[in-house]
Amino acid sequence: MERVCIIVDSGNFYHLVLKKLNIQDIDFDFEKFVNFLADGREIIKEGKRFYVATVRENYESKQAMSRQTMLFTTLSGSRWVIKTSKLKTRIEKIKVDKRMVDCQKLLNLGINEIEYIRSREKGIDVKMATDLIIGAIDKKYDTAILISSDTDLVPALDLVRLRLKTKIEYIGFSISKNDTCEKTKPVPRMIGKTDIQRVLVESDIRPFIIKKLF
Q1: What pTM, to 2 d.p., does this model score?
Q2: 199 C-beta neighbours (distance < 10 Å), count
Q3: Cα 132 to Cα 58: distance, rounded to the nearest angstrom
Q4: Is 3-86+121-208 a domain of CATH 3.40.50.1010?
Q5: Measured distance CA(95)–CA(8) in Å, rounded
Q6: What single string gives the DSSP state of each residue in 36-61?
Q7: Which H or E run includes 3?
Q8: Cα 175 from Cα 193, distance rounded (Å)
Q9: How many helices, marked H, and strands, marked E, lie in the chain?
Q10: 185 near 178, Cβ under 8 Å?
Q11: Radius of gyration in angstroms for the set of CA atoms belonging to the chain, rounded to a whole number
């Protein structure tokens, strides 16, 4: 039987799929989802792997921290491997120019630059790449099912596929539920750098939303 390892890039999946559908990750059944993706194939020991940035503790994040703790408890109970990194926050600047709507109004007010706070995961892609490579070297799996559209993983995918002769299955998405966000589409570069490609749409995702009693 084909052996699979399932790599879930939590942040990437949230922004590309769950956020579009107005779903919190605690309300998504990851266990049923990966069994659906495995489709009868053997999920290896420690083959359900969840990569996520931890929420920093502050007054505004208490609710988010509580949700994340509940999610970790649920996943751990189903024997998931949870790999974490810190969520880094920094101030970034954007120059006001013609790319912005009503840029001239801002310039007339003397606003030439806008500062905003941006949070980014640090080190998640490195941990995913490392685990993909080590698992392939040790021949722990035949196929890695990748739920991530992060093109920073491409060098690792090339190594796993071309040097170590192990398959990568890319799970892409086509989601456009939330009109305020750009449509999620499969990433062409990830399609070209993997052996198997599956594109899931909203109707594929809906069955894994946990229904609330109230």
Answers
A1: 0.81
A2: 13
A3: 34
A4: yes
A5: 35
A6: HHHTTSEEEEEEEEEEEEEPPPSGGG
A7: strand 3-9
A8: 22
A9: 8, 7
A10: no
A11: 19
E strand spans, 107-184: 113-121, 143-147, 167-174
What does residue 34 show for φ and ψ, rounded to 5 degrees? -70, -30
Structure tokens at 25: 């990750």
Measured CA to CA, the distance from residue 193 to residue 132 in angstroms comes to: 14
Cα separation of 123 and 158, whole Å?
19
In angstroms, rounded to a whole number, what is the distance separating the alpha carbons of residues 127 and 131? 6
Helix (H) or strand (E) holding 180: none
Greatest alpha-carbon pair distance for the chain in Å reads: 67
The token duo for 66 is 């509580």
> What is the C-alpha to C-alpha distance for residues 90 and 165, in angstroms, rounded to an integer?
40
Q: pLDDT tens across 104-160, in order?
A: 777 787 787 776 555 555 689 999 999 999 999 999 999 999 999 999 999 999 999
Enclosing H/E stretch for 93: strand 81-95
